[in-house]
Write a sequence for this structure.
């Protein structure tokens, strides 16, 4: 049976992971995208093949980010572009 300290340590760890989840997720995705961009098969993340990467402008977080592009993404680009121009 776990001691009180082990239980409290476990709760503290869960709290740390929850608090930092967004940063941890971003780091893992960034590393995974880098692996795919460097030639690893894209099935480590997606069911579809990554055809190329778009690079974000980096305005929200300071650093540009890689955005994977699949065949399905390319099919949706005209639709999303039309939506953006009609809303703007």
């Amino acid at each position: 049976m776990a001691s009180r300290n082990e239980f409290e340590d476990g709760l503290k760890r869960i709290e740390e992971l929850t608090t930092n989840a967004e940063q941890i997720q971003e780091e893992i995705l960034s590393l995974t995208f880098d692996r795919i961009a460097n030639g690893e098969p894209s099935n480590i993340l997606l069911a579809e093949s990554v055809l190329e990467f778009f690079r974000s402008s980096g305005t929200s977080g300071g650093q540009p980010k890689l955005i994977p592009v699949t065949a399905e993404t390319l099919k949706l680009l005209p639709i999303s572009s039309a939506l953006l121009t009609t809303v703007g």
User: Anything to note?
Assistant: The chain is about 55% helix and 10% strand.
